[in-house]
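FORM 12-B: Structure-to-Sequence Request
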C-alpha cells in the first residue's frame, strides 16, 4: 500500500487534479447548456453553472500547467 500512496500523491497529484477538474468542466458545461435550452423560462434553478464552468476551466489550466512543469 505504501507504493500506491507514493505513486499517487508525489508523482501524479496535479495530473489527477487536472483530470477531475476537466470532468467537472464537461459536466457543468452540459448542465449550463441544458439550463439555457429549458422550455419553461421561469424554471431557472439554483446552481450557478456558468460560474462553476469558468472556475473549473481556470483550475484545469492551472493544474495542467503544474502537471506539465512537474511540481
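FORM 12-B RESPONSE
SEQUENCE OUT:
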Amino acid at each position: 500500500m505504501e507504493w500506491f500512496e507514493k505513486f499517487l500523491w508525489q508523482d501524479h497529484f496535479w495530473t489527477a487534479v487536472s483530470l477531475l477538474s476537466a470532468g467537472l468542466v464537461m459536466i457543468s458545461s452540459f448542465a449550463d447548456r441544458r439550463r439555457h435550452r429549458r422550455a419553461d423560462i421561469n424554471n431557472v434553478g439554483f446552481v450557478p453553472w456558468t460560474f462553476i464552468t469558468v472556475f473549473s476551466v481556470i483550475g484545469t489550466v492551472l493544474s495542467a500547467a503544474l502537471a506539465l512543469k512537474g511540481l
